């Protein structure tokens, strides 16, 4: 898998807010309301990462989660990392803003 050029990487990062390039990786820090919310996000990310066979390097302390993504074989950032970053954004939105439960009380 080929590395993204600087220009393509910048364009891709413009669509995943908060993700920055550092150390041949892309990274973002998340702050959740508490540990339970952080763990819920991590569990969902774990499932999608396993399906993609692309795994985050991450660190969690209480409600904080730092995530770093890179493609080891390519020694840098590829479209696989961008795709996982997008998936992570969707998961975080789902957990922070869950679908309302529709009550059948009419
Ligand atoms: C052997 C296995 O397929 C590789 O190690 C996979 C697993 N998960 C991975 N995860 C990430 N983030 N980058 C990789 O290059 C990678 N490679």
Automatic annotation (TrEMBL):
For this protein, the record's SUPFAM superfamilies field holds: PCD-like
Keyword Hydrolase included in the entry's annotation: no
Q: Which GO terms describe its biological process?
A: tetrahydrobiopterin biosynthetic process
Catalyzed chemical reaction(s): (4aS,6R)-4a-hydroxy-L-erythro-5,6,7,8-tetrahydrobiopterin = (6R)-L-erythro-6,7-dihydrobiopterin + H2O
Q: Which enzyme type, at the first EC level? A: lyase
> What Pfam families does this protein's entry cite?
Pterin_4a (PF01329)
* Organism domain of life: Bacteria
* Range of residues in the leader sequence: none
The EC number(s) this enzyme carries? 4.2.1.96
Task: Tell me one GO molecular function of this protein.
Answer: 4-alpha-hydroxytetrahydrobiopterin dehydratase activity
Keywords attached to this entry: Lyase
The yes or no answer to whether the keyword Lyase is present is: yes
Q: Which family does it belong to?
A: Belongs to the pterin-4-alpha-carbinolamine dehydratase family.
Q: What is this protein called?
A: Putative pterin-4-alpha-carbinolamine dehydratase
Protein source organism: Flavobacterium sangjuense
Gene name for this UniProt entry: phhB
